[in-house]
């Protein structure tokens, strides 16, 4: 299996969670894998004051499903969704 180098994934230019996730998505997509092509879909939720473990995971899960429903191999932040 291919090893992703952390320097490829996280750089100073990637200041937001969505930008970091995008770097990860691109690294996975561009890597050479023994099993063939691999892509990832990611859902992100940033914590707010009223969050607890359950609510933040629910919002991230909804964002993940939005990435999958909209074509896969995408990054979706919960703030991008119109109804959470």
Describe this structure in words.
With 84 residues, the chain is mainly alpha-helical. Helices cover 42% and strands 7% of the residues. It is built from 3 helices and 2 strands. A two-stranded parallel sheet has the order 1-2. The protein starts with 5 loop residues before the first helix and ends in a 7-residue tail after the last strand.
Give structural attributes.
84 residues; mainly alpha; two-stranded parallel ribbon; 2 strands
In short:
The chain has 84 residues and is mainly alpha-helical.
Please render the helix and strand layout as text.
Blueprint: H1 6-9, H2 17-30, E1 42-44, H3 53-69, E2 75-77
Parallel strand pairs: 1-2
Cα distance spanning the termini: 37 Å
Task: State the total count of DSSP E strands.
Answer: 2
* Low-confidence sequence ranges: none
Structure class: mainly alpha
What is the H/E string?
Answer: HHEHE
Shape: elongated
